[in-house]
Amino acid sequence: MQAMKVAPEIKAVPETMTAAFDEFMEAFEAFKDVNDRRLGEIEQKLTSDVVTRDKVDRINRAMDDQKKVLDQLVLKKARPQLGAFRGGAELSPEAVEHKAAFDAYVRRGDEAGLRELEAKAMSAGSGADGGYLVPDETDTEIGRRVSVVSPMRALSTVRTVSTAVLKKPFATTGLATGWVAETAARPQTNAPQLAELSFPTMELYAMPAATQALLDDAAVDIEAWIAGEVDIVFAEQEGDAFIRGDGVNKPKGFLSYTAVADSAWAWGNLGYIATGAAGAWKSTGPSDTLVDVIYSLKAGHRQNGTFMLNRKVQADIRKFKDADGNYMWRPPASAGQPATLMGFPVAEAEEMPDVAAGSLSIAFGDFRSGYLVVDRAGVRILRDPYSAKPYVLFDTTKRVGGGVQNFEAIKLVKFAAS
């Protein structure tokens, strides 16, 4: 198949991932064939055959399923091995000692080792509310796996802080300048305008449970188990909050900020481009909206732009063609790479809304400049063997915040007449 000329780029990819990628590309070729047939029927009969439409929808769903399998294989490959070695490098004696002490605390509730470490150095301290910090290696493991699962965390700027709130000044306007003759008077120019943005960190928690028998089993990797239980839960909660969180006890998602027509944009709001039809694409030239939203960003942000949408909206866009008859949505060039739309990467986020009247279902922007994720250092675990006997609960908490830091770096598509 012609599309598989990209194979040399993935020689090192495991065979299962290669097979998944091949199946995905085959599904895309089948999708193009059937969709071309549908478009031909519309041209000839002003409508398409119901069987053809159903087949397009089935292949679309199959592509989504195969892409999900491919993403899971990529995620599995990205997960580093846990244990006394990280990335092929042996841990320091202090890190090994901390890991052993933490393992004893998790398995048996034995605090002696961690208390001894706390007395020697403040690297494994306990908080006023009880509990101990996860060893650095486990903390890093959770953060890295979440960054692969959550598209917003992977695309945004991430800052680690040691306080509850990060305050960030931002220059909304620069120095005023002007041309002047050699001997003319030079009036005072306006000073730059600064805005202070505040990003408080909120508490995110998970409470996995295990029986004491499981903890007594030496074959169980406790660190891997905690990371596996927590990372997906944290990723789902974070991904939802970074996109549509209301800012109450959670980060403020970019869809929760006031959205205004891009022609009336002002700092503190996000600009949108309307599709021209309520709850739908325009009947003619629907892709014009995508062109408009791309060029609503300034060049400095546009070159780093990424589309964010859910799989249902992506299924609609897969059918779009340009004036030359080429599909505007392109599959990934290789396993682990994103699909592209008009040359820009596509990030699939199920938290983005479906198409509806007035919905903001597509975002396009330079998310690294536009959105800030704030992590407070440390993931904390409190062992509770009493509240849910015979289970041992592990109250795992981290503090995370987020919000828009540059309001001109993200634009939205609104499915409305204006």
Question: What are the SSEs and their pairings?
Answer:
Layout: H1 15-45, H2 50-78, E1 85-86, E2 89-90, H3 93-108, H4 112-120, E3 132-133, H5 136-149, H6 151-155, E4 157-161, E5 165-173, E6 193-200, E7 202-206, E8 209-211, H7 212-216, H8 222-244, E9 259-261, E10 270-274, H9 288-294, H10 299-302, E11 306-309, H11 311-317, E12 329-330, E13 340-341, E14 344-348, E15 360-365, H12 367-370, E16 371-376, E17 380-388, E18 391-404, E19 410-414
Parallel strand pairs: 4-16, 9-10, 10-19, 11-14
Antiparallel strand pairs: 1-2, 3-17, 5-6, 7-18, 8-18, 11-15, 12-13, 13-14, 15-19, 16-18, 17-18
Helix pairs in contact: 1-2, 3-4, 5-8
Largest pleated sheet:
8 strands, mixed
Question: Radius of gyration in whole Å, from Cα?
Answer: 26 Å
Helix content: 25-40%
Q: What is the β-strand count?
A: 19
Strand order of the largest sheet: 9-10-19-15-11-14-13-12
Mean pLDDT: 81
> What is the overall silhouette?
flat
Low-confidence stretches: 1-14, 79-88
CATH topology of the largest domain: phage-related protein like fold
CATH architecture of the largest domain: Alpha-Beta Complex
User: Which structural class do the helices and strands define?
Assistant: alpha+beta
Would you state the CATH class of the largest domain?
Alpha Beta
What is the rounded distance between the termini?
Answer: 44 Å
The quaternary state of the protein chains shown equals single chain
Number of helices: 12
Number of domains as seen in the coordinates: 2
